[in-house]
Description:
It is a single chain. By secondary structure, the protein is an alpha/beta fold. 36% of the residues lie in helices and 16% in strands. It contains eleven helices and eight strands. An eight-stranded mixed β-sheet has the order 2-1-3-4-6-5-8-7, with helices on both faces. Helix 4 (94-100) packs across helix 5 (102-111). The protein is globular. The two termini are 30 Å apart.
Amino acid sequence: xxxxxxxxxxxxxWCPGCGNFAIEHALKDVVARMIDExxxxxxxxxxxxxxxxxxxxxxxxxxxxxxxxxxTLPVATGIAVANPDLKVICCAxxxxxxxxxxxxxxxxxxxxxDITLIVHDNRVYGLTTGQYTPTSPLGFPxxxxxxxxxxxxxxxxxxxxxxxxxxxxxxxxxxxxxLRGLIEDALSHRGFSFLEVLQVCASFxxxxxxxxxxACDLDPGTFPIADTDRALRIARKWDYSRDARIxxxxxxxxxxxxxxxxxxxxxxxxxxxxxxxxxFLDGRT
Length: 285
Ligand code: SF4
């Protein structure tokens, strides 16, 4: 299996220089390698939302489902609960997932649903030509905020560590080898894995120079950590001020029973929420 085997014939309509190309290539590389290593191709399911990122469903030749705006995670949850053997990957945009779909994001993290979420965070509504999103910076002069956005941006990593996601990472569309590794880590994690990707929007919010100058890597010898307080402190290091550094890499990882494992334990008649479910899971592995 090569990555070209996973490319569909759909004409690509992303703008030249769009960061979505890098995310698509990284995901293709990882899926192709996993198929080579024995994961059946039909066990991958990709769910996308609405936005430029959503075209991944057209371009990547695996099972896919186009969800409505903000609803990638409930669709993915249904698929993952109905068939826990599937590798369910959600691609969502920042407007899609931090705006319309925010409550679904919080609940997927809170439940520790075994899904991988890749957020194409270009910090702008690109498909609709440049309105501000929940991660646009204060003062962003978008089409709907000509005088500058009056809102502070969300900090997605801090939100996800706080909400209970058990794998939290950040990549950048111009750091392809690192991005590939982070997608591999996210897909191999059992539980809710959240990968935020700083994705360059070449047409409406090109932050290439800023990201290149401010991105820094978390030490892979130390990270990811399982200490939520420390992870929160590091997540907040990028407070969106122009001179703050932007940590990239896998920040947080913990192993907890997943939503699917809790449901399986319940179905087996195990109702004690902590000890008995752990015993049940230990007995199964
Ligand atoms: Fe990419 Fe931005 Fe063009 Fe959309 S509008 S395809 S995000 S460069």
